[in-house]
Amino acid sequence: MDWINVMVYDLFIPDGYRNSTQPPAPLYNPTGLFSGDQGINGSWINQLGVPPNKLAIGLPFYGYAWTLVDANVHGLFAAANGAGSVPSGGSTTPVYRDIRSFINNGAQTVYNSTYVTNYCYSGTTWVGYDDTQSVSAKVNYAKRIGLIGYFAWQVGGDDNNWTLSKTASSIWGT
Question: Residue ranges of the GH18 domain (predicted)?
Fold first, then answer.
């Protein structure tokens, strides 16, 4: 085997966590639940003994939407009524370009450096996703611990300017 693509996304989704918003692909999770670092460092490297240079970190180019119970309470872990959708894509798993459209139409954005995740909200629609801040932090993490690289699922979900792809490539370098 040359390397393993580690899916460190889809850790928290509306189907499994209906009652509160969640970071779908947190790099860290101080609550002790799932995280990218726990999967890569804790499981693959420390428990299974896989060398870091045989692992690639996954970057989701999509997010998950929840419906907030109260539009005025919109942080991580806010009360929710299950899955939501963004108007532009109509999906509970909007791709990055649809999330950007939602943001360009007035959604507020937040980057949480503790979990290394982004989210946005407008009215009762809340979306957890990765943007340039979290992608940069995750690619830097991969470089710092000596991973072989990163991969995106799915690159076709990036926006028309290839914002996430260019961000990851720029941080990784040549």
Answer: 1-174
Could you report the per-residue pLDDT of 20-71, keeping only the tens digit for each? 999 999 999 998 889 999 999 999 999 999 999 999 999 999 999 999 999 9
Helical spans, DSSP H, in 115-162:
132-145
Q: From the CB of residue 16, how many other CB atoms can be counted at a distance below 10 Å?
A: 9
How much is the pLDDT for 88? 74
Between CA 2 and CA 142, with CA 24 as vertex, the angle to 5 degrees is 35
Per-residue tokens: 112: 């949480």
Peptide bond into 154 cis (omega under 30): yes
Domains of the chain: 4-172 (3.10.50.10)
> Virtual CA dihedral for 120, 123, 126, 127, nearest 10 degrees?
-50
| Residue 11 identity | L
Q: What is the CA radius of gyration of the chain?
A: 16
Enumerate the H helices of 29-127 as residue ranges. 36-37, 96-104
